[in-house]
Amino acid sequence: MRKETGDPNIFAPIELEKKGAKQMMTVTLMRPLNMIVFEAIVLFTCLYLSLAYAIFYLFFEAYPLIFEGIYGMNTVGIGAIFACCIFLYYDGFLQRAKNRGAPWTMREEYRRLPLACLGGPLYVVSLFWLGWSASPHVHWIVPMLAGVPFGIGFVLIFMALLNYVTDAYAIFAASAMSATSCCRSVFGAVLPLAARPMYQNLGIPWASSLLGFLSLGMTVIPFAFIKYGDRIRAHSKFCQELQRGKESAEKDVKGTVETDRDHTPAEDQMESKEEV
Prior knowledge:
The protein is mainly α and about 280 residues long. It is about 80% helix and about 0% strand.
């Protein structure tokens, strides 16, 4: 806009922020940690995504233990392709609903989280399916096919929750994304170290069931966000700041429109005559 209008006094809000070591420490480093501790949406999103991410990498240890010589058959990738198709279909459905002004599209929770509500149960089912179908008496294709709902659930959970956090925190989304990225990286590095001892001590059925029960507990998170998300955001200091900024911008726009309306063509003509 500054380039188009030639007005050097037009600035983006981020350009007005002070730069330096203090700003880097308080914003770049501390804000993500602050959001993990004090923002319920960020905290529970971090927990859910971290567990899903860690289980994904844990399976790189678990699949050889379960399938031994046939691990190279990648049904998780097939599930991910199905998930992308579901996401694209839902995105088109959402856009059509927005175009016709459907009331539910005005809430962030209803726009993004339904995909996680679908992916979560699929993710849990895949873990129990894998654990209890892996047996010498069952053909290997049966536990192998558990990778399809696993891939669908994994991708849908990530797409839905990351998009929801981005929508909910807008200009603070980078800090929220940093928090989720840090947490899931730590979980993804640590939990797979326990894969081999866990599967050897508990056995394939109960080790997979343990992961399934943990994931089942996390499945309620998107449903809780849909029910209580607007109230949680109402008590969030970051979302309150976003709301104040939005209201301020709307007032400025409204004031500009009213000024333009009050400034009639007759007044313009009078001003031009006075200038003459």
